[in-house]
Amino acid sequence: MTEPLRIDLHTHSDRSDGTDSPAELVRKAHASGLDVVALTDHDSMAGWEEAERAAADVGITLVRGLEISCEHEGSSVHLLAYEPDPQYARLLAELERVLAGRNGRLPRTIERLRALGMTISVEDVHAVAEDAVATGRPHVADALVARGYVANRDEAFDRFLKAGRPAYVHRYAADLTAMIELVVEAGGVAVIAHPWGRRAGSALDRDAIADLQAAGLSGVEVDHNDHPEPVREELRAIARDLDLIVTGSSDYHGTGKIDFELGCNTTAPEEYARLMSAAGVGR
Ligand code: AMP
Ligand code: ZN
Ligand code: FE
Ligand code: FE
Hints:
The structure is a single chain. By secondary structure, this protein is α/β, with parallel strands linked by helices. The chain is built from 10 helices and 8 strands. α1 (22-31) packs parallel to α2 (48-58), α4 crosses α5 (137-146) and α5 crosses α6. The model has no long low-confidence stretch (mean pLDDT 96). The structure holds adenosine monophosphate, zinc ion (ZN) and fe (iii) ion (2 copies). Zinc ion (ZN) is lined by residues 12, 16-17, 42, 253.
């Protein structure tokens, strides 16, 4: 009997807030025994071409994706979009808006930190976010680490950067329902990332998930390290009941997130097959 495919559908490179280049990430995915890996940087498809070349080199299947910052009834929700048309103008325009929100927030975050007595500049953040298209709070955290103000990203979030802390600044995010419709219009497949994650401000219940499905949602990420086991079971039951695709993934960020190693959660081959058929990709 052949071994089942090992499939990880959520990872970040240094085009957003991961620490590996897209090519390094793909090579590590192959070396760690994965057969399929999705690159899903925040709000950007900038890593796709490099990742595709590396995937062809080492012989691993790449799924092209991204994780879009959305908002639903005042709460932040992350939407995984797989295989949308990378040239689809309305999608690109909306991503530009989200990226502008990220860049616009940066100087205001820095001002807050300076008011708290920390000597840090926008240039410090750009220095640690060299290859990033989507800059974010993890890069601010890295700059604080580099200046010796905190020991790691977690401490930076806990003390300064997470919602409710003194250097938190709100930024623009796309409307979730409208974004699901747009991803589908762009030929992609929409899956909610870590819907009940520890860090999520939202509580998407069954009815809300059913409404999103009516808007075009195809799946939910159930197996994720931010979901404790009982949460996974409850969410999996809802997904089965609604006939949504169930995914599992690492949300790997390189050294940027501890205990989120490649392949620490995986997606069942039959769920992956449903996802690819929804994307119109014959595999
Ligand atoms: P941003 O994109 O600027 O809104 O920042 C969100 C990113 O920061 C996500 O990729 C999270 O994985 C990461 N993040 C959120 N909370 C923490 C935390 N406590 N420690 C480290 N990273 C975090
Ligand atoms: Zn991230
Ligand atoms: Fe996320
Ligand atoms: Fe993520």
